[in-house]
Design a protein that fits this description.
single chain; 112 residues; alpha+beta; four-stranded antiparallel sheet; globular
């Protein structure tokens, strides 16, 4: 009987300690992007539509085209905003990518 009370007291104490300690977890970039993706520019929008909706970007990078034919390697332009980057093929959005919100956020490994 005493062992049952001791086991019960130990289980309750352990449960209270677990509850009292602060929870920590990794924040995944993928999870945040899934919730914020509706706020990013949509594929197919023009540069003027993006600028009208989101304002002037913090930085506009010069277009970069692949070697040889522009037909097979069109110029890609990147605009950086505080929370995301937008990639354009010619003058239309092909992708918008969220930036990390905090250094501890886990995302893809950088290209080496």
């Amino acid at each position: 009987m005493k062992a049952t009370h001791l086991s019960l007291a130990l289980a309750l104490a352990t449960g209270l300690l677990v509850q009292a300690s602060p929870a920590t977890a990794d924040i995944l970039l993928v999870e945040r992007v899934q919730t914020e993706s509706a706020a990013l520019p949509a594929r197919g929008q023009s540069m003027s539509q993006v600028e009208a909706a989101y304002g002037a970007p913090a930085r506009k990078h010069a277009p970069i085209a692949g070697p040889n034919s522009r037909e097979h390697n069109p110029p890609i332009t990147r605009w950086d905003y505080p929370g995301f980057s937008v990639y354009f093929e010619y003058s239309h959005v092909v992708d918008a990518v969220a930036a990390k919100s905090r250094p501890e956020e886990i995302g893809p490994k950088p290209i080496q």
